[in-house]
Design a protein that fits this description.
Elements (H helix, E strand, L loop, with lengths): L4 H29 L7 H11 L6 E4 L7 E3 L4 E4 L1 H5 L3 H18 L3 H29 L3 H38 L8 H38 L1
Parallel strand pairs: 1-3
Antiparallel strand pairs: 2-3
Helix pairs in contact: 1-7, 2-4, 4-6, 4-7, 5-6, 6-7
Bound molecules: zinc ion.
Length: 226
């Protein structure tokens, strides 16, 4: 089952979309890195957080490229070295997006709370769920296999909730960069390109988990009718 070529037929559209989105992220990031900004990514994030009253959120540097994320448990915004220290539109755009997540958290944005609660369910679904499915198929117990698929549905649910959270963080970032005067409206194009490309990677990930769920279900209904 791991090597079933039909799996790739099912998820091929998502894989192609993911490859295209990754390529767009990297080319948009490279282009926006060449466009100067008045302050670094870290300074932009600090400015956005402070002006929204989120002064308790810390900003730290983490190793890696595009490893930027907001940690809601520690209330820390972690930025990659390039984003943290560069004065470019790429840096301020990504830093502002992560600051957008911190603002969602500070303002009790409901979908973010649901997403954070669903992380555990998603991890169980993609791990234990798939194991149950395989065992169920292996011993011919379809109820167990369906339970595995149900758990995998938790992963799909997480991805679906994650999408509007990501879009909202980017919308907040774009609005804050302009209203705080960090990036003039006329120069927002390069920022928009980076954030929109990143959004497509999330769409691709969601599509992939949805198509994987469909594949599992069709595999099992096919088995049932044999
Ligand atoms: Zn994000």
């Amino acid at each position: 089952m791991f090597f079933d070529p039909m799996y790739f037929v099912y998820v091929a559209p998502a894989l192609l979309l993911a490859m295209w989105a990754q390529w767009r992220v990297h080319s948009a990031y490279a282009a926006a890195s060449q466009e100067p900004a008045p302050i670094t990514g870290a300074a932009a994030a600090r400015h956005i957080l402070d002006s929204a009253g989120a002064t308790d959120v810390a900003i730290e540097q983490v190793p890696g490229k595009l490893s930027d994320h907001y940690d809601p448990r520690a209330k820390v915004l972690r930025l990659s070295p390039e984003v943290y220290g560069q004065r470019s539109l790429a840096a301020v755009g990504i830093a502002a997006h992560e600051a957008g997540h911190a603002l969602q958290d500070a303002q009790g944005y409901a979908l973010m709370s649901i997403r954070n609660a669903a992380v555990g369910v998603a991890n169980i679904g993609s791990g234990f769920g798939v194991i149950l499915l395989l065992i169920g198929l292996g011993i011919g117990l379809s109820q167990l296999a369906w339970l595995g698929i149900l758990l995998f549905g938790g992963t799909v649910f997480f991805q679906l909730v994650n999408l509007p959270v990501e879009f909202d963080a980017s919308n907040r970032a774009k609005a804050q960069l302009v209203s705080l005067g960090i990036v003039p409206q006329a120069e927002m194009r390069a920022v928009n390109n980076v954030l929109n490309a990143a959004a497509w990677t999330y769409v691709a990930a969601t599509l992939q988990s949805l198509l994987t769920l469909l594949y599992y279900a069709s595999f099992l209904t096919g088995n049932d009718s044999d």
